[in-house]
Design goal:
Blueprint lengths: L5 E5 L9 H5 L4 E4 L2 E4 L3 E2 L3 H9 L5 E5 L5 E3 L7
Antiparallel strand pairs: 1-4, 1-5, 2-3, 5-6
The structure holds iron/sulfur cluster.
Length: 80
């Protein structure tokens, strides 16, 4: 079954405020006080978001299937 919803989380303990995610997916991440914040927790599947999660040097971004909690990114499944 293909999920239509993903859950995006940024771990503030890991984020170092590099801004890579906001550059890769400006519609999904913004820097607030030198830390990234996901603009929406629940999103439609997005290659930009998996690219951002895969690019994060701290692996601070986690993308999971909102229905079955399967981790989509980072990891080998991080492609649409
Ligand atoms: S790429 Fe990672 S470390 Fe850099 S701002 Fe985004 S979440 Fe933080």
């Amino acid at each position: 079954m293909v999920s239509a919803l993903w859950r995006v989380h940024v771990d503030p303990r890991r984020c170092i405020g590099s801004g890579i995610c906001a550059g890769a997916a400006p519609d999904h991440f913004v820097l607030v006080a030198d830390a990234s914040v996901a603009l929406a927790e629940l999103i439609e599947p997005s290659q930009e978001v998996t690219d951002a999660a895969e690019s994060c040097p701290m692996e601070a971004i986690t993308v999971r299937d909102a229905l079955d909690d399967r981790q989509i990114s980072p990891g080998r499944d991080g492609r649409l």
